[in-house]
Design a protein that fits this description.
Structural class: alpha+beta
Strand order of the largest sheet: 1-2-3-4-5-6
Number of helices: 3
Helix content: 25-40%
Radius of gyration: 16 Å
Number of strands: 6
Strand content: 35-45%
Largest sheet: 6 strands, antiparallel
Length: about 130
């Protein structure tokens, strides 16, 4: 809950770049870079999330430990699909991450992806409710 996103740069079009810096409460930056694949207003967007050399060394080391079949420092790419569906007078938001392998998925899961996404959705819900 203490994380922020002090940098968000998005060229919001298919093929456009995406860069988000997530900052921990301790001040550690976790940069995310990617590219928009599909944008279908108002119901769907798809983008890549690439973890490579730009990741903090400690995070890379954890990922490397959790991906023993990959050479150390190997990039990890996921494809993120976000859909918005009208439901019962509201909007159902679904986020689906797709990975190149089960090992990549498991490495991200062990590193807290579920709690991170859950906390992000809680914060989004609070913002939407307040608006």
């Amino acid at each position: 809950h203490g994380y922020t996103n002090p940098v968000v740069d998005a060229d919001f079009r298919p093929g456009g770049g995406l860069r988000i810096v997530m900052r921990s409460p301790e001040g550690v930056d976790f940069p995310m870079v990617g590219e928009f694949i599909a944008i279908e207003p108002p119901s769907r967007l798809v983008f890549t999330d690439d973890i490579g050399d730009n990741a903090p060394a400690e995070w890379r080391a954890r990922l490397d430990r959790n991906r023993p079949s990959q050479p150390a420092g190997s990039p990890l790419r996921m494809v993120v699909e976000v859909t918005f569906e009208e439901r019962d007078g509201g909007t159902l938001l679904t986020v689906t991450d797709t990975f190149a392998s089960d090992e990549d998925r498991d490495a991200i899961m062990r590193d807290g992806a579920v709690s991170g996404w859950s906390e992000s959705m809680e914060r989004l819900e609070a913002l939407v409710t307040a608006a």
